[in-house]
């Protein structure tokens, strides 16, 4: 039971019914009036899902500090839209804080149409632009804009205001010697570098009075060499409180930092100690978020006294009822975020940026369009063939619409390729998604037949058939020797059908090839506890059992197709684990001893006792032709389009087929 999570709490004068907030998230549709209903629906769903307090995505205080699809307070219409959002949230019984933001040197002139500004003219690795150093007038303008933003938030009824001062945005840039090299009263000593944020807080407090809650999102650790120290950070926290901040929300890592903070490979609650160090320094509530993805982890960090509130963000995309279900103890029914970033951060940071959705929750981003009103239509008997994620999603959507649904899965377990992928070290959480869909189907009384393949005659008894029979690995017949006995597919490895060799060559360096390389190379790692045990007893570890892995990638860009927030983490893992990446090479021939590979100017032989084909996949839909003329039949997921293995696309398609039907 989660006793700490569901204790009442307070931020300044604001009473909160429990300890789970929703952290700030950019949705990628803000500002566009046509999308206002969707923005409102997004927050209303989470208010109904019992978030104690939601924090809006960053709202720019000035246009040059703005970004793609951000509200900006200099735009009157945006102010009206924000007011509409507060009203909608309050009507739904929720609470919402406005986050004020200025991107500083993270702003892109291509998005704002204006030159970015920052404390000093230091190029940003994120935007590759050099901002203009702010003049003293410019700094005063920013100060006034933040103060005005807080006054606006109070005047239209927001329950609190949060200032974005972490992750390397403008206020954080003022604090750090890396980005603030000014020689006036705003730069130089740490005292001076704190001046702007502290002046803003004093100014806000003066204007909004004592009663209005002010949260400051500060950086607990920048994870940038030479940046603000731990002592300075704690000192800054104390100063913020002195000036009138009611709570500190502690972020970690700048966008430029080389330490992953949001990737699946980051252990649970890995940064709780950073939040805890701030909590030690102050006597106001402290909020933490990174890698606190489940109610259990949240309860634990509260119990340990590391923080007072948790403010997960992505978990609220995965399940709009995160707190409600946690409170009810409904763990089986909770759709957990799997930290894939595929539809959220990769969309926000993509070129061009795209609206945010969620791989595991197809309704995220479509709350308004699919207002969950059940349609009145005739109840159908529906057969879904294939229990991978596409099949599970189409079955769930169809059952939600009141149909009688039966799922047939040839294997003895659900999940298909998604289950296979869950063997990859950073993807083990994928099993949670399969668990969620399975629970949901059971609750919707969907009949699930495992290890069953329906006959055409059986399928003819249904009113509608969805074929979600997935994909099978593609075997490139043009490669000589591709059928030699030591040549296997990724599926043979992931299902455990064949044992691993010692000298392994992987043909194909895309997403699957890189993941399989990661899985195999990680087997060379001795678990931490074993390593410590051996070290304690001065026993040398035997490394003769190591597996060698070479990846032959046709593209010069390995792991192409993997999203920007994950790709660099995976590639650095592969490097660390000693995987050889041959980029720009094509496999021409496989022999019993290895394989010949060729680039434009080179040909070489790689010794290998096992060759794993990660050369793509082809659609698997053997029943389609036989059934389609008898029953309305639709292909879903990989069986429809095998060009890429994309669970997000498959799940979206499944929902579209049913909801737009
Ligand atoms: Fe989590 Fe992936 Fe959904 Fe983003 S897209 S919220 S990372 S499950």
Automatic annotation (TrEMBL):
Domain NADH:flavin oxidoreductase/NADH oxidase N-terminal: 5-329
Top-level taxon: Bacteria
Organism of origin: Pullulanibacillus pueri
Gene (UniProt): nemA
Protein name as annotated: 2,4-dienoyl-CoA reductase
Family: In the N-terminal section; belongs to the NADH:flavin oxidoreductase/NADH oxidase family.
Keyword Disulfide bond: no
Domain FAD/NAD(P)-binding: 381-626
GO MF assignments: FMN binding; iron-sulfur cluster binding; metal ion binding; oxidoreductase activity
Cofactors (names): FMN; [4Fe-4S] cluster
